[in-house]
Amino acid sequence: MAHRIDSATAHAWTALGGAADLLEEVSYVPADGVLPSRLPVRELARATVGACSLAAAELTARRSGGPVPAVRVAEAAVATAFVSERHLRIDGRKPTNFAPLSGFWRAADGWVRTHANYPHHRARLLAALGIADRGDEDVLAKRLAEELAARPAQWVQETVYEAGGLAVAVALPAETAAEAEPALITSRRVGDAAPRPLPPAPLPADGVRILDLTRVIAGPVATRTLGLLGADVQRVDSPHLPEDPDAHADTGFGKRSTRLDLADPRDRQTFEELLSRADAVVTGYRPGALDRLGLAPDALLERRPGLVVAQVSAWGWSGPWANRRGFDSLVQAASGIATIEATPDGHPGVLPAQALDHGTGYLLAAAVLRALTERQESGGGSRLRLSLAATASWLMHGITPATTDGVAYEPGPWLTERPAPYGHLRYARPPLGYGGAPRDWPHPPTLWGTDAPAWR
User: How far apart (Å, rounded) are the C-alpha atoms in residues 76 and 81?
Assistant: First the structure.
């Protein structure tokens, strides 16, 4: 077990505003062969989980008045959790993580990456390229390949974007190297609301109410982690935007899920009642996408002073791509990661996990925990911002590879099973490690959108 201060963990903890002396409490149990890649994914993964574990330990100590528990994170647990969606089994069935029309495709002058997992994105991709939605997926994939091979990559990217679909040109690292490195986490205190001390409790987020307005992986991983740590997490989705049930079966642990139409007066009143008692709101939509619904950070903080508003987006908060839709796989392609991880024959490659999603998710949870810790004494609200693009930049430019050692990695000890409304689940155990950390979530995922919109 390594006891020296890990530089990537120190960087993440500093970005979170944590006290440097607490880093002495963090150590890792190494494992050989975890998350192999050209880029330092292993180091990023363990640092994000280590920082989140330390934030949980810090808040636990602040609530109890005792010392900060030691943090000890197993790299094998981290590696297993970072591919939790791949380890998931539902009654023995392995979910499909990427649809047939999602992936890398040759363009006339390079490569493009598409994302068509959701039906509305799939329909827009096909429409943008003039492909009739007829025939099975194999036929459509062949037709898509033909169309993309005849078009320049940048043309595909912009044409599909204008149609509301998702495709990006695969970039070279040199094309992104000149861009300013974004802050990994930005945090701003807002207002002068009185401190809200949390009473002593065995779990750091016990009694904390979290409104979860996130989708896909990064945001749901953050709120899944907060649910593990005792928070009352209420996920709220629009009834007009269905979620993949397999995705929710992976990230819905420890939370409840409801559907509210915020354009409907009765549903809106219900949401406002939830907000009036919330401690934090976590959002995972494009910058500005929720503003028309009165859910801009300033509007939320005006109605609920002292609130923690945590936001995660794909591309960041400024620049020409800030308002675009995005996913981990697309950020990998556009940032140059896919080129760095290319196969010997030149085909774009991928990281061994959707590490931008998972890593950003643990940092997001850590940021919320740290904001709650600071609110204990200083009061006020908080605005927190993270992005997959910032995490990608950190991975590419800010992390030094560490020596690989330890016993050979085996995921089996970090998997477990339990019955759930979705069926019998096999799933990855939580990777957080500190004195007193829970070993599993308090309950499995409920069926998406079926819970009552009320705090427990």
Answer: 9
| Strand runs labelled E in 16-64 | 26-29, 31-32
What letter would DSSP give residue 262? T
Task: Name the amino acid, one letter, at 370.
Answer: R
Question: 298, 357, 405, 440: which is the annotated catalytic residue?
Answer: 357
User: What backbone phi and psi angles, to 5 degrees, belong to 170?
Assistant: -75, 120
User: What's phi and psi for 334, nearest 5 deg?
Assistant: -80, -20
Residues 235, 259: Cα–Cα separation, whole Å:
8
Residue 456 identity: R
What is the C-alpha to C-alpha distance for residues 397 and 361, in angstroms, rounded to an integer? 20
The predicted structure's pLDDT at residue 99: 87
DSSP of 371-392: HHHHHHHH--EEEEEEEHHHHH
3-class DSSP state of 151? coil
Start-to-end Cα distance in the chain? 40
Q: What is the distance between the alpha carbons of residues 189 and 169, in angstroms, rounded to a whole number?
A: 38
SS3 content of the chain, % helix, strand, coil (to 5): 40, 20, 45
CA nearest neighbour of 412 among 430, 424, 429: 429
**Catalytic-residue membership of 357:** yes
How confident is the model over 1-38, as pLDDT tens digits?
A: 446 899 999 999 999 999 999 999 999 999 999 999 99
Question: For residue 250, which phi and psi values (nearest 5 degrees)?
Answer: -85, -45
Calculate the CA 342 to chain-centre distance: 24
Q: What is the pLDDT of residues 236-289, one digit of tens each?
A: 999 998 889 999 999 999 999 999 999 999 999 999 999 999 999 999 998 888
Q: How far is CA 364 from CA 61, 211, 222, 263, 361, in A?
A: 20, 14, 6, 28, 5
- Residue 90 contacts residue 47 (beta carbons within 8 Å): no
Of residues 432, 48, 80, 446, the one with CA closest to residue 228: 432
Residue 26 one-letter amino acid: V
In one-letter notation, the amino acid at residue 141 is A
